[in-house]
Amino acid sequence: MGALPAWYDVERKQDNIDIYGNLPFSLSGRDHEVTVGLMHSKQDFTSEQRNPLNAPPVGNFYEWDGSYPEPEWGPKTPHTRKETEQLGGYGVLRLSLADPLTLILGSRITNWDTEGIKSNGDFYDFNHHQIVTPYAGLIYDINDTYSAYVSYTDIFNPQDEQDRNGNYLDPVEGKNYETGIKAEYFEGRLNAMISVFRIDQDNLAQPDVGYLVPGTTNQASYAAEGTTSIGYEFEVSGAITDDWNLMFGWSQFQAEDAEGSAVNTAQPRRTATLFTTYKLNDLTLGGGFNWQSSNYTRLTNPLGNSEEIKQGSYALAHLMANYQMTPELSAQLNINNLFDEKYYTNSGAWFSQLAYGAPRSANLTLKYDF
Description:
- It is a single chain.
- By secondary structure, the chain is mainly β.
- It has two domains: about 1-105, no CATH class; about 140-370, Maltoporin, Chain A, CATH 2.40.170.20.
- It has no helices and 21 strands.
- Strands 1-2-3-4-5-6-7-8-11-12-13-14-17-18-21 form a 15-stranded antiparallel sheet, with no helix packed on it.
- A hairpin with a 6-residue loop joins strand 19 and strand 20.
- It is globular and about 75 Å long.
- The mean pLDDT is about 90.
């Protein structure tokens, strides 16, 4: 099945306002704090399309050398438009219950309004008003080094995915539970934390294998119910000595729906990050890597067949050197993806499009402080 070239002009504009204030107060001989805020955001997305007036065939794909003449383009036509506006207010109360114990209570109330035009010309308009998302946390200072915490948060997240009938899915709703221990070493220069979490969600978009969104080549989705994600995270970061800095993180989770089938399989289940720097007088050298386990997704190709797209595990190595030439002037060299690893950054909603990640690159920066 062939595909015609297309030309798109895309514009995205977003404005954000966040106003908040903190008010400390005393009660029962203890110091507390309350924070209140108001936020507003508006995002406009528009795209226009130009179809080719002539589109020469590629010919035998296996003999194609990668060259293709630019077609003569037709006039611009509207493709899609979407406007999303969010208005919310929030409040946080931080109460000192005892010298080692702090209680945090908060809530947010939000209005979401979305309208637009799909690529097939259909108009849509939906909103979610007065959505309340509370959260709470409890922190216990075990001693000067360690503190333990537990937290709870409601989840409400509108989404853009469409089902096999072209209808947009309802927002993701759920609850997030987390507990962990934090530590500060060397008078706070080195920080460490370990946490475990559980996330329960409904209406979580998943590929509806075998179906496309009507009138498009986009993968249709269905709303998975009763999904559960359970995992843990570990991180240590900061200064080991006056000259040596280190950051290491590891995260791991599993996610299943109510029937025990894996969900969000395009997300790697395990990730790790390591980066370190060492200072030698005016020269600072650094290096590290990002690693992730394999992942996969099942999508529907333009012929209506189900295909599994898999990305194997991979690591990206990086190097850095910074030289302080004068108190005001410094030069820094960054080399990213040192070994020029080839990998996919997405296996997206369009079966025929896979994006390669950035190849090896180098960046030299001169910085002057006035």
